Amino acid sequence: MAGKQTGRHRRAHEARATYREVFAVGEFRALWTAQALSFIGDQLAQVALALLIYRHTGSPLLTALTYALTYLPPIVGGPVLSGLADLFPRRRVMVVCDAVRTVLTALMAFRGTPTWGLCLLVFLTVLLGTPFTAARAAILPDVLDGDRYVAGSAINNITHQVTQMLGFLVGTGVVLVVGEREALALNALTFALSGAILLAGLRPRPAPRDREHSSLGLLRGTRDGARLVFGDPTLRALTLFAWLAAFYIVPEGLAVPYAATFSGTATEDRAVAGLLMSAMPTGMVIGAFLFSRCVRPSDRIHSMGWMAMLACAPLVVAAMSPPLWAVVCLWALAGVGSAYQLAANAAFVATVPAGGRAVAFGLAQSGILAGQGLGILAAGAGTELLGPERVVALAGAAGLSAAIVLTLGWNRMRDTVARTLRGTEPEDELEDELAGEPEADRSSASTT
Fold first, then answer.
1. Membrane topology per the record (predicted)?
2. pLDDT string in tens for the chain (448-residue length)
3. Where do the H-state alpha helices sit in 244-323?
4. Alpha-carbon distance 130 to 272, whole Å?
């Protein structure tokens, strides 16, 4: 009898939230709409920058360098600036960041802006994205609870990848029609609309922490956040899993020079580049949907290591110079594997204290972006010597090796993390507890 009750208790805890439930929350709709607008503008800007630099220079290194500027700024100030979302009201942080980024991206659209000025504006724009992302990540658990948070994270991830997929395909055509600078102007407009939606759609909340001296608070918060994340074995493992993105992002950064290996006209190269750029985001959309809707929360945790390996393993085949259709399929398969980030994100939220959520998220996110930027930059330099196929294969092999090592350590702690997400206790303790519980209490158990 106790075993049957335990099964009912576990199933109640592992009930999966629907997307309809998530979209019924008005504040989430505001966050999602603002995010979608920003992502669409960002994809237009990335396509415009990559095509502009490669068309003018023909250099894979300079193209990768420009692309890397969308990832590198967190190395400079990301961990510190992310603490703003713990010291100031998070809605205010997001709105101010959107307002400033509107101005910066509008300046990019001026034809008189030199290349070095364009790079500086890109750097500053992405740098401001760090506190914005930290604030949005920190406020989402306040808007959505339980498995609704996981479903909301999946929606955000799917939205990101869909906008990447469409942005790289449609964005290439838009840039060719309206021009690179005009596409950057559209990006400025999306930031302005995003800020207005957040201001109107989110209710004000107080700052999570009291602050006496903001600068000292930021530095102290950064130090405490690093101790929190890297001093806890679970948070450290989850952060390192997140940072694996530095390896499987390499194909996206090399899509333009990789497209040139299929020798065609300049127009054909642009079309192939858009197809390659959209392959991995397409796989990510499929993976995120299946992982969030068809896999139980605890099973996501148990399969996380295998999924991380799948995110890197298909890239190794690039060493064999497969045809275009095979490259697209392999990159899409790697995208499916990257859905493990949903499980890592949910476990991170369940483990980190609410008061340090923003700086912890900011540190993890800054590491992701910094690793991706350095990975793309190193891959661009390697492409000058080895060619894009070999560099993609090396990135996949290195990522696969790192994923295997992380999975071996993760398997020793994943059961504990899965119980935390379920809100349950070890099996023997749970059965003893249920034996003395009223039936009504068991069926209404709360979810983390």
1. Multi-pass membrane protein
2. 444 444 444 444 455 677 788 888 889 999 999 888 877 777 777 777 776 666 666 666 666 676 666 666 666 666 667 667 677 888 888 999 999 989 988 888 777 777 677 778 878 887 887 788 878 877 888 888 777 877 787 788 778 767 766 666 676 677 777 777 777 788 888 899 999 999 988 888 877 655 444 444 455 555 666 777 777 788 888 888 988 988 998 888 788 788 878 866 555 666 787 788 778 888 888 888 888 777 777 778 888 889 999 999 999 999 898 998 999 999 999 999 988 888 887 788 777 766 566 667 767 777 777 787 788 878 888 888 888 899 999 999 999 999 999 998 888 777 766 666 565 433 333 333 333 333 333 333 332 2
3. 245-248, 250-253, 255-260, 266-294, 297-312
4. 31
Residue the block writes with tokens 């003395």: 436
Task: Please give the torsion angle defined by the CA atoms of residues 254, 153, 298 and 413, in that order, rounded to the nearest 10 degrees.
Answer: 60
Domain residues for the domain of 277 are 17-206+217-422
Rounded CA separation 446/448 (Å): 7
- Alpha helices of 179-244 — where are they, by DSSP H? 180-201, 214-231, 233-243
Q: Write the CA distances from 49 to 65, 89, 248, 282, integer angstroms.
A: 11, 33, 21, 22
Q: Does the residue 235 lie in any domain?
A: yes
- Helix, strand and coil percent figures for the chain, each rounded to 5: 85, 0, 15
The phi-psi region of residue 25 (left if phi > 0; otherwise alpha if psi is between -120 and 50; otherwise beta) is beta
Q: How many structural domains does the chain have?
A: 1
Give the torsion through C-alpha atoms of 222, 228, 229, 235, to 10 deg: -160
291 contacts 284 by C-beta, under 8 angstroms: no
**CA-based R_g, the chain, Å:** 22
Residue type, 297: P
Q: What are phi and psi of 242, to 5 degrees?
A: -60, -35
Enter the pTM of the model. Answer: 0.61
Looking at residue 90, which CATH number applies to its domain?
1.20.1250.20
Look up residue 71 and give its DSSP letter. Answer: T
Per the structure block, which two tokens stand in for 66? 């420009």
Measured in degrees and rounded to the nearest 5, phi and psi for residue 91 equal: -65, -40
Q: Is residue 6 part of a domain?
A: no
Helix, strand or coil for residue 221?
A: helix
Is 9 contained in some domain? no
DSSP state of 34: H
